[in-house]
């Protein structure tokens, strides 16, 4: 059991997120999730995409995404986003993101992000300092593969 | 068996699709896929998002997406996209999209699109004329739920 | 002289704003400015795009933009944005936006926004309550055309 | 007089270009123009952003844009875009872009693009081969500053 806390952040649904049907155009949810992940790196883990990019020359491209669009969101909605790590692998990690307005779930997503060298675009072992930070957001039902191997 | 042909279209990877790592920013793939679906409606099925929107007052929002980003794409790549229907339901349909450059698969996606009234944003029974057009792109391993019910 | 205060807001330059050269892709500045205008309506003027859209059925489309990209911005930069009204017309208003990082000006923009009915997309007289709010942000060198006519 | 021909290309207005008012969201016009410039490099001048980027390590960032949004465009419109060079400087060039549907002008834009080294982001003298290609699209009222200096 990993009784960790989710990273949470509110996100205003803006005019430019919405399509002619007046609801969020679904690829915009992926941009919103990317902003959440970026804020999580900065505010939740005390690092940043900028640091990783410019100092460590690593990035975290997506290897896989799954998103369920459960109910539409409209301009002016405040989407409450929460993020947890569900799998901490050797070279990649998986996160689960949920977006709610009040009690209503609007969207659920699962993203696999790979830790990769910027130049070769190949996966690299997650640096220990970053791994330690990611662990703080491991879900209660999350799996740390390194821990599992050592058990 | 539904020995239908995929809808295929080439898509140039442009400067604005790419991120500071020099590869396609993954939410842009969803916009590229949305353009493919739009072209499929026009060129493959002889209808259009514009017609559906403005005349029939229906849209086709996404209910679920799954995307595997298998290999990165760079500016100047010509992505060969192909699309097939894998499930034809009562109010929604599922498509499978693959993007290749030469023999290399770059991306595979599965999208569930709902046929919905623009005003209420509720799913509606797929109009017969649209259903007939969608059937022409049913994959060999695809399922037509109406056909299955009648069998 | 209109000794009013600018609306100011910081904006993080994110990974998804940047292009393969590692700097903000210039159309993204327009999206950033649109978010600033949206925040100004909410936080500065106590109204919102959502209210205007859904209750008053009016929007504020752009009629003209001019932007000078003076120095590039990179991921992780905190852009300090400031906004003032430079012209308050009968059916439209002009704003001046500046983006700085420290003392360095990165971008200057002038935008003409029209107050328009959503349905007809025709310009309408700015409602008095909105006009009064816009006046609070009139630049020292700004012009209120109604005031000028009455003088 | 430079009796050159404009580079012309049709561009479909797509669902994802449009906002909740059902018209093109104005920053999307800038992306559409960027695609036009990219197509002009490839189809009009026989080079490409990809070549310039990856082989010559140069880019063409925008230094200034001016856009007039004259009439709104909607989903399904085919925008006929035309592009001419109006100023050919030492390190930068200016283009004029017009978008029409039938006889109706929808949008006019002026863009100053700088030829810049990717690494330093400083302007560089336009390479002679690129300059020669740009000259082919010089407007009848366009100015070639090098020619003007030598006259």
Automatic annotation (TrEMBL), chains A, B, C, D:
Q: What is its EC number?
A: 3.1.2.23
Query: Is Lyase included in the keywords of this UniProt record?
Result: no
Query: What's the protein name?
Result: Hydroxybenzoyl CoA thioesterase
Tell whether Glycosyltransferase is among the UniProt keywords: no
Matching InterPro entries, A to Z?
HotDog_dom_sf, Thioestr_dom
Reading the lineage from the top rank, the first entry is: Bacteria
Keyword set, alphabetical order: Hydrolase
Start and end residues of each Thioesterase domain: 22-104
Citing just one GO molecular function, the answer is: 4-hydroxybenzoyl-CoA thioesterase activity
